[in-house]
Amino acid sequence: MKIESLVIHGGVDGDERTGAVNVPIFQTSTYKQPSFGENSGYEYSRTGNPTREALEKLISDLENGYAGFAFASGMAAITAVLSLFKAGDKIIISNNIYGGTFRVLDKVFKNFNIGYIIADTTNLKEVKDKIDETVKAIYIETPTNPLMDVTDIKGIADIANEKEILTIVDNTFMTPYLQTPIKFGADIVIHSATKYLGGHSDVVSGLVVVNTSELAEKLHFIQNSTGGVLAPFDSFLLIRGIKTLAVRMDRHNANGKIIAEYLKERDEVEKVYYPGFSDHPGYEIQTKQAKGYGSIISFVLKEDYDYKKFLSNLELVTFGESLGGVESLICHPASMTHAAIPAEIRKKVGIVDSLVRLSVGIENSEDLIKDLDAAFKKSK
Ligand SMILES: *Cc1c(COP(=O)(O)O)cnc(C)c1O
């Protein structure tokens, strides 16, 4: 099956017992055990729930993995993956990684002596040089948030395989519709399913896909032991969201291109970060490893323009956290999503105060341009 069909019929397709075309919401915490020492395959919903399982099979199918796991947020998913490591281990991370991922490493896992090394993962030699015997994984996002740096997934996975360490990819920005890291050699794929996978800004959730039975066993043990599981109703919402992933992503891609080109022409804009521009340093790798360029665009306003006024004067585009919804969302990384990253690191990597990040939705692109036009005019 091709992915456009798989998003609708993958995982568990409907309900065998009744013929219902949707997987039922098994709103139950526990299951009756038919007799002593026997069970139906389910014992307790932290350990296993049929609605959650349908979602877990679906994301595993979409990512070409061995098994999937659903969590109560992207951060719960990331925390579960980081729980694979032990004191003394280190993880190499991309230098403009999602702020919350940096925070959990820097403020939580550091206390357990699990360390991190920051690298420019677009530079494979730098990554290779930073690996020593304490490094147990390379953790990347591509394109990165918010500067849209592109990392060569296969290049990273080849290095990791040679050193017998794990490759972990946060695939939130691309989704499996546009990019499937396991095909390039990644071991673990993570999603904040809150974003494009859910797609409707109505559920907070996280997903993990692993590529081997060994990792699946470990991840299930961690999921059951630490307990940050996704609720049955939220699992249902996510399955429903994923059914339209292909059509939504096609429109996101198309709108993203239109808006990126529009922004590039604006006098008020100093710089546009969009991996679909042929002069973007990661353009070739992006074109090789992904089926599109997505709809996240970051841009810097020129000094003479006030980003606060620009953001406050948007009407159709929603000023707020998050991304990947059907509605266009815009945020200010330095004070919002990336506030947890120390100011000097922010500046060094390019997350300046006048940088804004736009998640282009699936509205009519002319309406979006009209709204951006009006806000630019009021930003002087
Ligand atoms: C939002 C996000 C996360 C965190 O996910 P939550 O669902 O908000 O916990 C992790 N990685 C990326 C790239 C994100 O955009």
TrEMBL record:
This is Cystathionine beta-lyase. InterPro entries: Cys/Met-Metab_PyrdxlP-dep_enz, Cys_met_metab_PP, PyrdxlP-dep_Trfase, PyrdxlP-dep_Trfase_major, PyrdxlP-dep_Trfase_small. PROSITE patterns: CYS_MET_METAB_PP (PS00868). One of its GO terms (molecular function) is pyridoxal phosphate binding. The keyword Ribosomal protein does not apply. It comes from Clostridium acidisoli DSM 12555. One of its GO terms (cellular component) is cytoplasm. Its cofactor is pyridoxal 5'-phosphate. It comes from the Bacteria. The modification N6-(pyridoxal phosphate)lysine is found at residue 195. The lineage of its organism: Bacteria, Bacillati, Bacillota, Clostridia, Eubacteriales. GO terms for biological process: cysteine biosynthetic process via cystathionine; transsulfuration. Keywords: Lyase, Pyridoxal phosphate. The keyword Lyase applies.
